[in-house]
Amino acid sequence: MRNIFWDRCCNIIAAIFFIYLLWRGFYGIFDDVKYMIYAIFYMRDNQTSFTSFDFDIFYSLGSYCFIFGITFAIPILRKMYRAFPWLYPITLTILLDYVIIALGYMILSYGYQIINVSRNKMFFIIMIVQLVVCRVSMCIYFKFKPIRHI
After folding, report:
1. For the chain, how many structural domains are there in total?
2. Which residue in 27, 68, 99, 104 has the fewest CB atoms around it within 10 Å?
């Protein structure tokens, strides 16, 4: 009788975690990407850098990695990946995409700290190359080691 009660409690905890924290994390990632894209176009058009936004990106990146890391580490919360097998690959892919975009944003922000047109263009090109290389390497890695389930 205890196992049935314990399983139901674990399912309720996993459902609450899934509904609130995980979807909030997904929304936050997409919202941060929207602001990063806005900041990239702002930096490109105005030749200035958003230095205060850099801290916010890595603060949110750390909090999302913490949320998803807890999800992968705690067996009670890992149950939601058994209930939704499509969620594990999406979570990993979105988290890695966010890391790639945050690194690209940091490269571009570093390049726009000094107002120099040639330096700004060079760092914009470096950011584009970094995004393409990281995305292609992530795709190649997932081709050879596909994400099945947890």
Report:
1. 1
2. 27
150 domain residue, yes or no: no
* Residue ranges making up the domain that contains 9: 2-144
* Whether 104 contacts 127, CB under 8 Å: yes
Cα 31 to Cα 49, 77, 120: the distances in Å are 20, 24, 25
Q: What is the per-residue pLDDT across 38-75, written as a single tens digit (0 to 9) for each?
A: 777 777 777 666 655 566 677 777 777 887 788 788 77
Distance from C-alpha of 94 to C-alpha of 83, rounded to nearest angstrom? 19
Give CA separation, 77 vs 4, 121, 130, in Å.
17, 45, 34
Please, is 77 exposed, middle or buried when counting C-beta atoms within 10 Å of its C-beta (0-12, 13-18, 19+)? buried
Evaluate whether 19 touches 84 at the Cβ level (below 8 Å): no
